[in-house]
Amino acid sequence: MAGIASVLRALGRAVWRDLRTLQSIMGNNFFLFVLLLLQQMESALFFLLILGLLVLFPLSADPLRKIPADRLMLWPLSPRQRVALRFASVALSPVAWITVGLLLKTQKLAVAGQFLIAAAIVQALVAFSTQVARRAPAFDILRRIPALPGVLGGLVRKDLRQMLTTLDPYVALVLSLSAVGYRLFSKAPDASALSVLTVVVVLAMSTYSQCFFGLDGAAGMARYRLLPLAGWQILLAKDLAFLLIAVPLLLPLRPLAGLGAVLVALAIGHHTSVFQPIPQHRWRFTSGVVVPNGLIQSFFLVSAGVAVDRQGPLFLILCAAAYLGSLWYYGRTWAALLH
Amino acid sequence: MLWCRHLSKRFGEFTAVDNVTFEIPAGTICALLGPNGAGKSTLLKMLTGLLEPTSGEASVLDKREIGVLPENLGLFDDLTIEEHLELTGPIYGLSSFETRSRTEQLLSALGVQEGRRTFLSQCSHGMRKKTSLAMALLPNPRVLFLDEPFEGIDPVTAETIRLLLISIARRGVTVLLSSHILSLVDRLAEQIMMIRKGQLVWNSAISELPRGLEEHYFELVEAPLEQDLPWLGSQAS
Known about the structure:
Low-confidence stretches of chain A: none
CATH superfamily of the largest domain in chain B: P-loop containing nucleotide triphosphate hydrolases
Number of strands of chain B: 9
Order of helices and strands of chain A: HHHHHHHHHHHHHHH
Helix content of chain B: 25-40%
Distance between the termini of chain A: 53 Å
Oligomer: heterodimer
Shape of chain B: globular
Mean pLDDT of chain B: 94
Strand order of the largest sheet of chain B: 5-6-7-3-8-9
Number of helices of chain A: 15
Helix content of chain A: over 70%
CATH architecture of the largest domain in chain B: 3-Layer(aba) Sandwich
């Protein structure tokens, strides 16, 4: 039993560390927005549901998977011990705790059961997509991102893939699809509602621009130092990847207003990316500096989106000028800091 | 020519590289030897611009002229082996035809053609190292800095790399490499530098070594310890 206890202790530590990575949501602009909306629970419910659904993906992961399969096989455990470990590891799953919590709170088996089924479906989806990606790489969506032309094409492809391994673009995708649904199926879609949804889509992605180098790691930073590229070119590759994800999501909404908001989000996000680089975790919400950077970024991107929407494309030119100035300044600063 | 004068690097109280001076003529293969933590990687990082020296000076090379295999390999988990090379070519001004052609030749020479579409996050250490080495060679550099190029590489590829380095050095490429595999270094390097606790303790042509490379290394840098751990093997007897 001492062997199993030792494995479970290590597993418990790994689960705890993993749970702590979910705290990244606290540094996310979209989470901040949802917190503000909580004053009106009815308005916040939809956004809370989106957040909850996406957080369920990392939460529902099998704790035993934290031990490398080869290592688990090599340990001298008897079949009975392995079965015991399998059952004991279930108790370490956050989904199990939440199910029990729901049961105690609501006293309704159906509610806890529905949550458990939702988590099981999410986990099955993850397992299925992982298997598909492993056995038939052609179906791996990230792999299908093509090589883009130009000097920065390879970097943009890499940055696109990096961005798509965080949860932020998926929140934006759900919001954009919801807005499209609203536009298609509402008898009299309110134009101002579309404007609001446009800036909310940008807000959902904006924190990523505060942590552009968070997934590159030490090896990536070493490569940037070695490449014969200027700082602004490396930043531009990241911005292009951001735009390539943001623009299709904004096209069915208010594209010009969205573009204005994106340019301002990037212009301000560069500051935190360059001066306060924060390491990020894959398949989590990105985490930036909420106060004051996130607040400033949120305020100005919303203002830019509204201004372009109401006052016309002239404000878009101002947004573009602000973006270019930021790219030039922070590109130079980043290169200087890097060396 | 590659050179440095009185080059030092200090991290707080710790001196990683201490007043190192040397010259390496063009077209020479020079091996930098020393135990783990002696300062080899720090010295290479300063020469390649990855790290600012605390004091001293070194030859300044254009980034387009050098090929580097860094200590941490400098790779991206989100790209496959071949995509790393596709990324490198255009940045160094190669046309897409040149990039493709050189990529094919390098992947074949380094024995990674089969795994070329594998994401780096799923590659073995050897494959990762070969990818980084291929990235260093792709732009056809004038100077190569290789941090432990043979460690973790299968013997056939290691021999291929050795022959490749000899042939490019004959065409004038200068190679500075660090390694722990003395038998390979013995058959490759023309100049030997030994470093211990940040200080350069030997620098000569390999032909000027007073005795065999391994013997000289053990005597000058550090001798192996004869240690016995009695509990190891006690189950077998």
